């Protein structure tokens, strides 16, 4: 039996509620089994950052950074070799194989990204092998332009300081509220895992006593992430502080709130927001820095100034 193609029931349900079933149907062909030869292989070869969504040994979903020198991603046909591993202290440092995984490779400098979904066929001391079921590009919307680099001496084996807990502390909340970028991991019970990018004006992710939330901006109408959440509330977030290399990973649950378009906080005017309840939090560091940022020119402005409380 082949890999299922097309949109699953969660994606279709969100598309219908958003009133974009027709436009979305025209994009279903993007989910067909891929061929990673040619342009996709070249794009992956030149990348220095990928992001991975998978489950740890306890079944918790996490989204983790995978930095590497250009050439660390090698694509052939429907297989992707990743010559990098989650860092020591990362929740996915000890990955189990034969599980669904989602990945996104991103070039902040050109605002390009490629999503890759499949299964983890191998995990060894030097890297991972992904059997790819889907691979497709996304538009440049909401990607803040950066030129990433690795700090001197970052190739060492020093284990970074790690903080873990059940909820974000005050330092975590400051990082979240200052962020203009994060990555969202979701999963479907039978169709696999996914990693996606979210970006906006700093402050677009709100933190309050109930957890975190952010407005859903207009996009490609496929609703891969929100469709997964309609079928499985499991979710994972990854925040990167590009000035210090600090990473913040959160594992928990998320749900879509449908509001009236234009209410305070509906920055994108879609009448949708995603609320996330953290269950586990890990803060560590990775060698990924950028000194300057050029905001995406059409980031929606913040439409509220809430009195945010520390969760």
In short:
Helices cover 13% and strands 37% of the residues. By secondary structure, the protein is mainly beta.
Shape: globular
**How many β strands by DSSP?**
15
* Share of helical residues: 10-25%
Number of helices: 5
Question: Please, what is the average pLDDT?
Answer: 92
* Low-confidence parts: 307-311
Order of helices and strands: HHHEEEEEEEEHEEEEHEEE
Question: Which percent range describes the beta-strand content?
Answer: 35-45%
Radius of gyration: 18 Å
Q: Helix- and strand-based class?
A: mainly beta
Major pleated sheet: 8 strands, antiparallel
N-C termini distance? 46 Å
What does this structure look like?
This protein is 13% helix and 37% strand. It has 311 residues and is mostly beta strands. The strands form two sheets. Strands 8, 9, 10, 11, 12, 13, 14 and 15 form an eight-stranded antiparallel β-sheet that branches. Strands 2-1-5-6-7-4-3 form a seven-stranded antiparallel β-sheet. The longest helix has 10 residues, at 9-18. It is globular, with a radius of gyration of 18 Å. The chain starts with 8 loop residues before the first helix and ends in a 26-residue tail after the last strand. The model is unreliable at 307-311 (pLDDT under 50).
């Amino acid at each position: 039996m082949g890999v299922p193609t097309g949109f699953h029931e969660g994606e279709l349900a969100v598309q219908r509620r958003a009133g974009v079933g027709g436009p979305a149907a025209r994009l279903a062909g993007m989910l067909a089994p891929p061929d990673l030869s040619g342009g996709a292989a070249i794009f992956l070869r030149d990348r220095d950052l990928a992001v991975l969504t998978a489950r740890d040994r306890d079944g918790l979903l996490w989204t983790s950074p995978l930095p590497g020198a250009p050439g660390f991603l090698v694509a052939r046909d429907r297989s992707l070799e990743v010559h990098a591993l989650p860092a020591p202290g990362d929740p996915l440092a000890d990955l189990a194989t034969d599980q669904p995984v989602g990945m996104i490779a991103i070039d902040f400098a050109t605002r390009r990204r490629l999503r890759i979904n499949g299964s983890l066929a191998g995990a060894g001391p030097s890297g991972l092998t992904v059997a790819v079921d889907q691979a497709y590009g996304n538009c440049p919307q909401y990607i803040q332009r950066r030129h990433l680099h690795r700090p001197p001496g970052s190739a060492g084996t020093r284990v970074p300081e790690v903080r873990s807990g059940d909820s974000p502390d005050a330092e975590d909340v400051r990082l979240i509220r200052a962020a203009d970028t994060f990555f969202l991991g979701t999963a479907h019970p039978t169709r696999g895992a996914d990693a996606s990018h979210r970006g906006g004006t700093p402050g677009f992710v709100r933190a309050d006593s109930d957890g975190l939330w952010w407005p859903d901006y207009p996009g490609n109408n496929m609703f891969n992430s929100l469709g997964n959440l309609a079928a499985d509330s499991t979710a994972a977030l990854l925040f990167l502080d590009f000035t210090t290399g600090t990473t913040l990973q959160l594992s928990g649950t998320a749900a879509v709130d449908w509001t009236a378009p234009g209410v305070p906080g509906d920055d994108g005017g879609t009448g949708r927001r995603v609320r996330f309840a953290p269950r586990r939090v890990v803060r560590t560091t990775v060698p990924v820095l950028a000194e300057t940022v050029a905001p995406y020119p059409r980031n929606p402005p913040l439409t509220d100034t809430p009195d945010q409380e520390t969760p």
